[in-house]
Amino acid sequence: MLLEALAIFVIILSFIVFVFQNKDDGRTAPGPKPLPIIGNLHMLGKLPHRTLQSLAKTYGPIMSLKLGQISVIVVSSPQTAELFLKTHDIVFASRPKIQATEYLSYGTKGLAFSEYSAYWRNVRKVCTVQLLSASKVEMFAPLRREELGVLVKSLRNSAASGEVVDLSQLLRELLENIVFKMVLGSAKDDRFDLKLLVHEVLNLVGAFNLADYMPWLGVFDPQVSNSITYLALNFYKKNIFLATFTFYKFFTI
């Protein structure tokens, strides 16, 4: 009985929020009419880029959508995109906060997910000076030449024997070996799987989570409490040493 009453209360509250948030004051961009609670989420389908292209033909190069409770502006022409990405890039520089980045980046910290601020500018400066400066890049030039030589030799041997090679796989292994040697001093380390780490991050960040679009449902969202929490904890458990070692090596040289 209590759960039924709670469900009814949540539905009524959602409808009230929807009504007040979707009053047309004439200042929003044109767009399809959203449904209560879910907004326009049902319209995106399995190929959202195709859906957005089709909607842009109806509503123009700048249109508004409602993804759950989140208002979104969709830009679909080069001229208008330039306004957002170049002319007013600082205004729109921050990434949206999602559940996955809260777990994976200690509350959206770091260069990739933090909002544009003095903190982000300082982190970028540290990365530029400590990781991407000419002296740092030149320091690892012999290592890169060595690994490229190994790759070229492998390709030469495969060509001589008529063996079919997966160039994408070889390039991924090349990058993996270079990163491992830069960070750990050796090409392989059985304690870490860099490819698995990258795939885990991409899967977590790209996963659909209801609480990203209905923030007030975060505490009730089983995807957050089960899937993301489990994967994020597993992510940290396997890679905390690598992260600590990387920070120490690059920021104490």
From TrEMBL:
Its cofactor is heme. InterPro entries: Cyt_P450 (IPR001128), Cyt_P450_sf (IPR036396). Transmembrane segments: none annotated. Keywords: Heme, Iron, Membrane, Metal-binding, Monooxygenase, Oxidoreductase, Signal. The keyword Ion transport does not apply. Belongs to the cytochrome P450 family. This is Cytochrome P450. It comes from Vigna mungo (Black gram).
